[in-house]
């Protein structure tokens, strides 16, 4: 803090008791535990205001030097979704028929994935997340950004949590390579496609793979 960059008061509830903290953390853990990746979507439309709130949440994530090195393309236009499906399935056919090693295919077997991606047209919204590798100033010069991968990962975590909290389902989808997304969406060279979040409502009676999360003692240790 200095005269040029004055600080402002933090909004923070200093009065919350340990019990309140425990209750809130448990309630959030219980909510997040019910999130499952979904690949079958209904065509029910998401209200625009919900999408806006979710994107505002994603944009509130922390980032290196607060450069906010992300861009979210929220695609609801059926023609653009079809173009994305067409190009993504080209990559997926290559992946499943030749590029993917057997170990990878074996690891994917429990998820029941394949090269057909109908959800890219059926789901009401595809949120394409771009990582801004660097900025561009008003005079057209390159502006250095920091920890862009880490920052975008955080924003994506906020986004997925916000979607689940709002009552939406999603799929974190990464066709590879993803350069076709710049072309279809007209995004500039400093933006690298990072992930596609396919979102909407699950089809009725959707089943999901019977997979489990690791218990706390396998993923963490108190020192
Ligand atoms: N992109 C492919 C393959 C795939 C890879 C991983 I790692 C997954 O967790 C799931 C799928 C596809 O989406 O089918």
Secondary structure elements and pairings:
Elements: H1 18-33, H2 48-58, E1 70-75, H3 78-99, H4 102-108, H5 119-122, E2 125-132, E3 134-136, E4 142-144, H6 148-166, E5 169-173, H7 180-185, E6 191-200, H8 216-219
Antiparallel strand pairs: 1-2, 2-6, 3-4, 5-6
Helix pairs in contact: 2-6
Bound molecules: 3-iodo-tyrosine (IYR).
Short description, anyone?
Helix content is 40%, strand content 16%. With 223 residues, the chain is α+β, with helices and mostly antiparallel strands. The structure holds 3-iodo-tyrosine (IYR).
Q: Which percent range describes the beta-strand content?
A: 15-25%
Overall form: globular
Number of strands: 6
Q: Could you give the order of strands across the largest sheet?
A: 1-2-6-5
Q: SSE order, as H and E?
A: HHEHHHEEEHEHEH
The end-to-end span amounts to 33 Å
Helix percent band: 25-40%
Unique ligands = 3-iodo-tyrosine
Residue-averaged pLDDT: 97
């Amino acid at each position: 803090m200095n005269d040029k960059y004055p600080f402002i008061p933090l909004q923070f509830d200093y009065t919350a008791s340990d019990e309140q903290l425990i209750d809130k953390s448990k309630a959030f853990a219980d909510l997040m535990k019910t999130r499952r990746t979904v690949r079958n979507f209904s065509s029910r439309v998401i209200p625009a205001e919900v999408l806006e709130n979710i994107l505002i949440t994603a944009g509130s994530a922390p980032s290196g030097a607060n450069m906010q090195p992300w861009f979210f393309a929220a695609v609801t236009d059926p023609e653009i979704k079809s173009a994305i499906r067409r190009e993504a399935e080209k990559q997926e056919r290559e992946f499943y028929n030749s590029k993917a090693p057997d170990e990878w295919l074996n690891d994917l077997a429990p998820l029941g994935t394949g090269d057909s991606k109908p959800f890219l047209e059926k789901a009401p919204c595809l949120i394409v997340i771009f990582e801004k590798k660097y900025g561009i100033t008003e005079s057209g010069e390159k502006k250095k950004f920091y920890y862009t991968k880490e920052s975008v990962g955080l924003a994506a975590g906020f986004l997925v949590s916000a979607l689940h909290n709002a009552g939406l389902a999603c799929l974190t989808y990464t066709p590879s390579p993803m350069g076709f997304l710049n072309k279809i969406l007209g995004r500039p060279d400093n933006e690298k496609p990072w992930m596609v979040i396919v979102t909407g409502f699950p089809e009725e009676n959707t089943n999901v793979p019977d997979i489990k999360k690791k218990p706390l003692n396998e993923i963490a240790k108190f020192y």
